[in-house]
Amino acid sequence: MTRPHDLLAAVADGVDPGPFALVRREGADHLELFTGTVRTADRLADIPLPDGPPGPRTLALVPYRQIGERGFACVDDGVPLECLVISARHRIGLAEALDVLPDRPVRSTGAGFDIADDEYAATVGRVLADEIGRGEGANFVIHRTMRATVQGSPLVAALAALRRLLLRERGAYWTFVVHTGSRILVGASPERHVSVDDGLVMMNPISGTFRHTGAAADRDALLRFLHDPKEVEELYMVLDEELKMMATVAEHGGQVVGPYLREMAHLAHTEYLLAGRGSRDVREVLRETMFAPTVTGSPMENACRVIARHERTGRRYYAGVLALLGRDDGGRQTLDAPILIRTAELSPAGELRVPVGATLVRHSTAAGEVAETHAKAAGVLAALGLGPDAPEPGPRPEIRYDHSGSARLTPRRDPEQSYADDPEVRAALAARNAPLARFWLDQRTPGASALAGLAGLRALIVDGEDTFTGMLAHQLGALGLRVDRRDWREPGPVDGYDLVVVGPGPGDPGDLSAPKMAAMRALLVGLLESGRPTLAVCLGHQLLSGLLGLPLHRREAPYQGLQRDVAVFGATRRVGFYSTFTARADADRVASAYGPVELSRDPADGAVHALRGPGFAGVQFHPESVLSRDGLAVLADLLGHLLANPALTGHGPADRG
């Protein structure tokens, strides 16, 4: 049963046609039908990707519990990693698909969230106070699930829902139905997680949610949304987090493109694209990018702990990915993986689950995040008969052609309903890049930022459970250092390194009973006593401050994803903070057991933004962050001090934008 008409006719007649997937990818004027057999795998490395002619090989349904492969915490619900091993692939035109897909209402009963609004709001409050407020991270995503029962054939219902999504939803990266025999997934995901094509790795951080009604007043509300500090900072934070991932899977890190507005039927999002060259096996790329910060939080490892503490059930496939693996004409591996959000899961018995989540940041309100979960579920729920439809954007989508002759599908709709080309909207989006680091926004020529005084020198970065260290490694490498990274749990010598960086991470630096804090403090003691040049960043800076006798305080309002202009040893620098704790001092110079220390302090409260002494330095902010416009200049200046090379000091390439 390989022809689309045969398969859909069999479903309409109540026959199970066997495993298949029906997918429309962003901008395509057709759907792809994949058929084959289903097998399960224990690990991402076990996903089959055999040699052979070009094209897709396997469609993997990756559940959230696979995050355990990285050693991260999760509520393990036992949901399997299923793989549709593709034996046949067919194309079906969009108009033809709309004609053959079942055009009938979907009826669902008993709908309700598994967690009531007031209970979810209470969870939001706890996360804001107990996690973000105590320095456990910058943002966290907590989910809830709408549950119901579908009447009639679940497979027919899923295909009917697909038809309605194709007609009424817009802005989706993938619109799809996947049937494995043990489950059905149907959805319209707006977000590419990661793709690999011709060695180009791309990621697509999306954040910020604007709920619209289709009314003319939406334009003014949209402009207010685009200038809302909470929404702006939320996107910056997930951008930083995905840049951390790109630092691992792309040889030179990721270049930032955008931001853009992604409009959907019930809401709009803001987004960036990240691109970089990589050579890893695509299954490794999947593993190293589990999972998007837009559905977990940051820093990633601790976000998973926070999720496990506050979510009472497993996530099943929510926040995981669909992953289409294949090969191109040259035999190179390809990958296309949308995030499993705005997706419903149906069992053969008709049990329906639609999980959704909200991103909690320091500006969040409980009521706002409750409303966001309702808005995010609206599109899929409407397609499944559980909510009002969005207006249908015309009788049929319109096919247009771009300058290269490629077909692009755009829905027919009133131009007033699309804001992406509105000059004020475009200006508001472009303005978001003005304060950001050009290091991540511009095309980087290898060696262009290298400083002659660093040639041949080696640096070791010790990671405190925050992969900002990957971005830091790229910046230090761009300046000319040879860089290694090591987890704080991995003991090892520091001999042979010209510089040791004690890096960032979550947690309370005053809790020296915590193994991480004790280990990183002991490392700093050894470095200071040996006189080895040492740079401490964020958590490392806090621990160093404690060793120098400076008191530590927890801020009343966390500095998570906050950008500020601060004085750093006589120069005003625009930098980004991700911290809840800070050291404080009453003077610009203090004595310590390791020599005199010069401090750069906040004039308002004495918070220590940076310090330096004989052979050591520390910064509370993140010079590697996309929020640190002047981060590269700060690093160059500090390296000049640490490595006793005056030629570097004051000559760092200032990131002025």
Describe this structure as you would to a colleague.
By secondary structure, this protein is of the alpha+beta class. It has two domains: 4-389, Anthranilate synthase, CATH 3.60.120.10; 438-645, Rossmann fold (3-Layer(aba) Sandwich), CATH 3.40.50. The chain contains 15 helices and 30 strands. It has an 18-stranded antiparallel sheet that branches. It has an eight-stranded mixed sheet with strand order 22-21-23-24-30-29-28-27, with helices on both faces. Helix 3 (117-132) crosses helix 9 and helix 6 packs across helix 12. It catalyses: chorismate + L-glutamine = anthranilate + pyruvate + L-glutamate + H(+).
Tally of separate domains = 2
Beta-strand share of residues? 25-35%
The number of distinct β-strands equals 30
Radius of gyration (CA) equals 26 Å
Class from secondary-structure proportions? alpha+beta
**Count of discrete alpha- or pi-helical segments spanning 4 or more residues:** 15
State the CATH superfamily name of the largest domain: Anthranilate synthase
Mean pLDDT: 88
Distance between the termini: 58 Å
What is the molecular shape?
elongated
Give a quick account of the main beta sheet: strands, pairing sense, barrel closure: 18 strands, antiparallel
Instruction: Return residue spans where pLDDT drops below 50 for at least 5 consecutive residues.
Output: 390-416, 650-657
CATH fold-level label of the largest domain: Anthranilate synthase
Q: What's the helical proportion of residues?
A: 25-40%
Please identify the top-level CATH class of the largest domain.
Answer: Alpha Beta
GO molecular function, one term: anthranilate synthase activity
Domain Chorismate-utilising enzyme C-terminal: 118-376
Region (Disordered): 386-422
Domain Glutamine amidotransferase: 460-638
